[in-house]
Amino acid sequence: MPVPFKRAITLFLICFLPLWGISQGNPADSLQQELASHTAKDSVRANLLVKIAGSMTYSEPQGAFPYVEEAISISKTLDWTKGEALALRQKGHLHYVMADELNALDAYQSALQLSHAMQDKELESTLISNIGNIYADLKQYDKALENYESYLAFAESTGNINEQIKGLSNIAIVYNDTERYTEGVAYLEKALALAKEEGNELFVAAITNNLALAYKKLEQYPKALEHYQDAAVLAHTIGNKYIEASALNSIGIVNILVGNYDAASEVGQKALELSQEIEAVEWQADSWKVLSEIYEHDGKMTEALEAYKNHVRLQDSVLSEEKKMELTRKEMQFQMERQQAVADEEIKRQQLVKNGYLAGAVVLALISVAGYFVYKRRRDALEKKKVAEFNAKVAETELKALRSQMNPHFIFNSLNSISDFISKKDVKQADDYLVKFAKLTRSILENSEKKWISLEEDLELMELYMQLESLRLENKLHYSIVVDESIDPDNTLVPPMILQPFVENSIWHGIAKRTTDGTIDITIKNEGDMLLCVVEDNGVGRSKKVPQEEHKSSLGVKITKNRIDIINHLKNTKGSIAMIDKEMGLRVELKLPLELQF
């Protein structure tokens, strides 16, 4: 199948330049013989199959596919990733030559995935360049340029001159196609310098021909003509009729542009003969146009008309082919965009699934954390409850112990008083005291197991106690008990004998030291949710105590303080004891939580 000039030159520069020398030597027969003698399904056979397909790329691309498919099959069986990638790349070349860009792109991308997995940077870079060719054909020049620049960067990093030449030429072609001729020329000049250093005449001829085209577009006709002539001579020397025919046609066109019709006539006829020989329809059309203008200039109107008819006929054929190619290109672009849309949707779907899994994991983690905290909180609450119950039991036990300590203490003091009466041989007083003491002791014993008793009962006990102490002090003790009207003594509860230690202290350490009568006043008031109990005396006060008693604290007072601390702990209240020194005597303020029976 004839290959159009523009596609042939592009492929020559980009894809198959390493294969050109092989194809010129017609290696198909020797490769076929070698393949026939090697029947084992191994990597050697797979490599031979790829080489044979490569040698058939221009001459028989359709017939090369069975070789490529067998190479892919063998490579997959052997799990030889490199072989599979090379075979897929060659398959892409075959599709590309046959203008099937969509299947070419699919093969290139499959090979690119394998090369990326192998981390074969060299193979990966060539495939990137091949994909760049397809983007260039689709006129997606930005993507093509991006691929070519990546390819060139790798070639420069590895010091591969031949690959650098290809990369520079590819970039130049994109610049020329987008009419950025000055930039295109710069890249072509770099590529030409490298090609000359390498002594690669084929490269030099092709690049020189492209340089001439760029200079012609820039209307620098002398430079263009010079480069076309150099390209034609070199192409003839190496026997490359494609480049030679292209260069000769262009020489004719430039000579007409500068008005040198004699030179144009000479090369125009030769260009036509070469174009017909290689069956390049587009170049034949260009040759006939050159000859038509020459004939017209020379006054040969009949020949000019005939030449122009040939040009139009062939040009229509080329245009028809180009229209088909444009339709194919648009169809391919549409399919690529559709495939890309499907791929994007699949990516979105996978992302949604991934996000769903992630969200589920996060929710599960949050539920686990929340569950742990709920469990911990419940466990801590149970622990606190157990601790509180235990502390309550301990506190209650301590309270009972304190009550049991206080009662013997009071009894001890009372017995001392009775002993005092007996020592004074005051039998009647001792008898009266003993009666009152028995009554008081019975009440104390009855209340010893109670946590709370009514305020009325407790004050009666205090009054009975103060009567006993008044007897002991020969009636020099006077007392008063005042309860605020807002308080119901029968309904208000207090701990048993809670005031007794303070009354006792007032008597023994305050009133008893006086030389005259003394007074104790008990006042009960309501302060919000607290009950204020005041015991006030006009005794000698704490500052008037005898030295040996100054550091001796009342056991009853200490016990009462402990009792209030326990009540505060159990009921979460702020009960307190305050002792206030007066000018004469002591004032004790006792605050208890207000506790009601009903």
TrEMBL record:
What Pfam family does this protein match (any one)?
Answer: His_kinase
* Listed PROSITE patterns: TPR
Q: Where are the TPR repeats?
A: 125-158, 245-278
Q: Which UniProt keywords apply?
A: Membrane, TPR repeat, Transmembrane, Transmembrane helix
Q: State one molecular function term (GO).
A: phosphorelay sensor kinase activity
GO CC, any one term:
membrane
Transmembrane regions listed in the UniProt entry? 356-375
Concerning SUPFAM superfamilies, the annotation shows: ATPase domain of HSP90 chaperone/DNA topoisomerase II/histidine kinase, TPR-like
Per its UniProt record, what SMART domains does this chain match? TPR
Q: Does the keyword Ribonucleoprotein apply?
A: no
User: Looking at the keywords, is Cell cycle present?
Assistant: no
Query: Which residues does the UniProt record annotate as the domain Signal transduction histidine kinase internal region?
Result: 397-477
> What protein name applies here?
Tetratricopeptide repeat protein
Q: Which organism is it from?
A: Flagellimonas alvinocaridis
Lineage, opening ranks: Bacteria, Pseudomonadati, Bacteroidota, Flavobacteriia, Flavobacteriales
